[in-house]
Predict the structure.
Amino acid sequence: MISVHSLTKVFKDRKRGQIRAVDAVSFSCQPGQIYGLLGANGAGKTTVMRLLATLLRPTSGSATVAGYSVTDAPDAVRAHVGFLAASTALYARLTARETLAYFGALQGMDAAAIAARTDTLARGLGMTDFLDRRVGTFSTGMKQKTSIARTLIHDPSVIILDEPTLGLDVMAARAILRFVRDCRDRGKTVIYSTHVMPEVERLCDRVGIIHGGRLLAEGTVAELRERAGKADLEDVFVTLTGAEKEEAA
Ligand SMILES: Nc1ncnc2c1ncn2[C@@H]1O[C@H](COP(=O)(O)OP(=O)(O)O)[C@@H](O)[C@H]1O
Ligand SMILES: [Mg+2]
């Protein structure tokens, strides 16, 4: 469902020169799977996701999403993808329900389809209590749930979530993890980025460890533990990224 081959993105920065934000990354994710992209700040997670969501064009390499090439058929890719970016903004004056109606209309949905989908998403994410309140009055968790619902209003088969629990309290984060698992169980293809180790263990069917733009290791959490010879995922991460040396230095 998602297939990534040697995907590379080089940014040209006036001060820093050429930055290989994503460097020959390859992986795949099947329907009914959650693929975790695990990496520290600046590792390249967001850039991979923006390439898959067709917000950036790759410098080289290729990727297909829902069977469509991100370079040759970006419109088809967009129709099948829901992408939650870290910087997703909402309109403060709209209620959550109005927000979903607005983005549903942009996706070409009719009123009945929007109403049905709003109901399903509100129940799945625990939004029913605040659906008719204005977004401007929301807590961070309520805003994030609204952003996720907005991202998935058209019920896309591929779901790309960039650090969706960042900065959220425990209960809001739990609700989102439960919802993401439900999506997986209904056959969605999910790409999920995080730097939170316990989240990876609880959620992801496969994990790619990304560091300096490169996918350094990939597999189930059990496979990665075995490869690193460590039980604790944090130790696995440090070993496989070679960050031990950086730590020592
Ligand atoms: N538009 C851009 N222009 C220049 N450099 C960028 C741009 N976007 C990201 N980068 C750089 O690419 C690298 C990877 O960034 P990013 O994908 O945001 O990492 P992550 O999401 O894992 O924190 C970083 O060094 C970042 O500074
Ligand atoms: Mg990021």
